[in-house]
Amino acid sequence: MTRGNQRERDRERAQARKAGAKGRDDGLTPEQRRERDKKALEEKKAKKTQAGSDCGGGAADNKGDKK
């Protein structure tokens, strides 16, 4: 019922994964992080709507105009 050194290898691999993991050590509180993320999403949404209005959006109008 022995597992040999598998446990030790698994611990080493877990430590290696933990060290490479992206941490949340940005010094922000959860509320500040939410505000930052909310602002980023609003900017992204505004940019997307701006890009959508720039291209005209007339694809639906040209549906049956093949001559």
**Number of beta strands:** 0
Number of helices: 2
Low-confidence stretches: none
Class by helix and strand content? Answer: mainly alpha
Summed over residues and divided by their number, the pLDDT gives a mean of 81
Series of secondary-structure elements, N-terminal to C-terminal: HH
Helix content: 55-70%
Oligomeric assembly: single chain
Task: Work out the strand percent.
Answer: under 5%
Rg, nearest Å: 26 Å
Biggest sheet details? none
How far do the termini sit from each other? Answer: 78 Å
The geometry reads as elongated
Brief descriptors of the model:
67 residues, mainly alpha, 2 helices, 60% helix, SERF-like_N, Small EDRK-rich factor-like N-terminal domain-containing protein
